[in-house]
TrEMBL record:
It comes from the Eukaryota. The keyword Iron-sulfur does not apply. This is Esterase. Keywords: Glycoprotein, Hydrolase, Signal. Residues 1-31 form the signal peptide. It comes from Quercus suber. Belongs to the 'GDSL' lipolytic enzyme family. One of its GO terms (molecular function) is hydrolase activity, acting on ester bonds.
Amino acid sequence: MESPTILKFTISHPFFCMLLLFASTVNPVFGLKRCNFPAIFNFGDSNSDTGGLSASLITITPPYGETYFHKPAGRASDGRLMIDFMAKSLGLPYLSAYLDSLGTNFSHGANFATSASTIRLPTKIIPAGGFSPFYLDIQYSQQFVQFKSRSQMIRKKGGIFATLMPKGDYFSKALYTFDIGQNDLGEGFFGNMTIEEVNASIPDIVNKFSINVKRDSYGCAKSYNDVAQYFNHDLKEAIVQLRKDLPLAAITYVDVYSVKYSLFTKPKEYGFELPLVACCGYGGMYNYSSSVGCGGTITVNGSQIFVGSCERPSVRVNWDGIHYTEAANKFVFDQISTGAFSDPPIPLKMACHNN
């Protein structure tokens, strides 16, 4: 049986400029044929959630989705995410959220990501001011495992049922992506842990990540970036071990940190402006307030004001003070998909080949 391709990446937090790394599976031999991935299975948080949170816990309202979908589409952005551009580049439809299953076609894969998810079991969950209850172990070891078995039971019914579920051999030929990690660090920071305490928690966070995989000076806060890079260092070491533990899987480390950080250090060079200022928000020098978010309303001088988006999201990096704009997501994907930031340096479309 073929071994699945595993694309693992942690993500960044634009409000703190907490940019982590991205690891994927690709091959440095450019003479190899392009891969034909039949499906993508994604696990993660808001950086790749295509409707999980909005289907289960919190409704996403306008102006989210206005740039591309022209309506809320379950994504924490004005448009598409990196996972959307990834699917498009591989010739696959956009992934539907596993939790949003009404009338959904899962024949090309499924998205188990939900916003505010963590790798480890969160100490507080939504709506009690915490994180998603669908942390990585739930997404991967329960939802995905059940989906894998039940989808084949449904396929056996034939007819329309067979066309809406992935074929059995797709699971060993698919691209698996893990886009998660920032909220584990954020939970520590917002829980008033010291930098040293958050650093001390990183080995356990990375270990929990590995366990799941093996089951089948620019206005940014320097201290937060230092912790993110420490996390990335441990992640890279974990990937070295995962290559030994999973010899049939092709695992490549991709440095998304450098790409995203460049949007804050050299925005004009790439056609962006005001990278730290939220496009959709209200208040303060960063156009952001934790008390009222994008799409909310606020009373100013007795009048109700809708918190809408800026005039040109296409030249902005920061969408709502926490997440990226579609333009920024596309820029990052275009940079990393070539393999220029990969170790080994291989393009995404050759990810099915082992080293």
